[in-house]
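Progress narrative, work stream C.
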Amino acid sequence: MTDEQKKEEQKPASPEAAKPAAVAAKPPAKPAGPAPEPLDNEQVRRLRARFAATIGEATLDRKQAIVVVARERLRDICQYLRDEEKFDFLTDLTAVDWYDRSPRFHVVLNLYSFARNERLRLKVPVADSCPSVSGLWSTANWLERECFDMFGIVFEGHPSLKRILLPDEWKGHPLRKDYDILKQDTDWVRENLGIESGQ
């Protein structure tokens, strides 16, 4: 090692080098998605002309048409959409628990038209029951049973409304926001298996 290299090595570190590394800045928050826009297309106009006040708010959210409909006319509206608007496939049916709203739930139906390659989402505000559409789309049978099992919503007119995921003796409905899943699991395991749950 040369004398020059030794001198360099013995120099005190610069004040800048002694500073702790800067904390990485937080990345900027992701911008919120686009807000839903009011929807007033030909299909919505036909629905309003036929079903009047039972058709509520209509919006377009990320290219998805969404229409709020009254539970009292749900089956008639769905039959019209299947037969005349050609929405021949119910792709999904689920619910949202708003908990502190009245009515508490939205039942959500996602429809698809093969003929038009078009989707439509229906939202149905309900307290605790909803007309069954299993007579219109066979896929509704198990989807309504799952919704009943998870949320406790009764589908009036369903041919065999019973649990589909949980045991028949299970208490409560796990996707309700006031449901204590750990307590229910512990109780069920103790009552039905005679052991303490591992949770």
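Work stream C, second folded protein:
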Amino acid sequence: MTVTSPFDHVLKVLARDYAESFLRLSLPGVDLQLVGTVENVELTIPEGRVDFVHRVLWGEQEYIFHLEFQTYHQLDVPERLFVYSALLTRQLGLPVLTVVIYLTRREAPIPTAYEVKVGDVLVNHFGYQVVKLWEYADEIASGRWPELAPLLVTLTSEPDEEVLARERELILQEADPSRRADLLACAVTLGARYFDKDFLWRLFREEVEMFRETEFLQELFADKIEERARQALQDGLRQGLAHGRKEGLRTSIEQILSHRFDGRLTLWQLRELLEPLPVSKLEALIGSALNAPDLDTFIAEVDNMRRSIQQSVPA
């Protein structure tokens, strides 16, 4: 496998969770059933391991589905796939279906076989399926393959904010929270190649905070998450101080009135009277509680304050 970061992370997630989608893309009309994944297949070759190997059924016949991703075509791909197929067949004892998914547009023809010729005579031929994923960009954007939405930004010749917003819209359709988090991480991973971090944060902030346990998101947005946490702490402290200040003022007014007017209002009645008033109004009422000639005058002032607050609130 020759995919480099960040595609490696993204494709591992997509090939693990959505192998069936790639199966339908590469072999349309063939009624194959995905029945399992073969984990960590190690081969006795320098590369050592192939990443995306699944078990599929056609009727009662079982096959190995070997999925290979290529960012760009490399000259050794046909020979390497020939070797992979032979070793997988021998090691797992099943016929192998080899499919290569290409991610970057290429105008020149892409080889679909490993061949050995003597002059013009074809001696050996090993063929495999090739999927040019950019040819499916419109289908993915339309919602035909929502699980492949994170790849849209790589399949568009000039990705813009609209493409990324469409990715986000499609990803949020995924019902499984864990998979939704993985797709989000994939979209942000690839988006970081084309857009600055501040824009990605603005677009995906709500989802990043929801799925902040995703390791890549933590790394990319560490400063943003820390800033948000610090802001939340400061807001909480301010709210706590404001609440404490309001509670203290209200208690002081209640004590003054109870002392001056000998409990003519119950504590519950006082609380109900003062509850809607903000700190600034309660501060002004301290003087009124001390100097009002009688309780009715004080209550009238509170009523005026409450009416002014109600009138200032838009309908």
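The chain has 13 helices and nine strands. No further action is required on this item.
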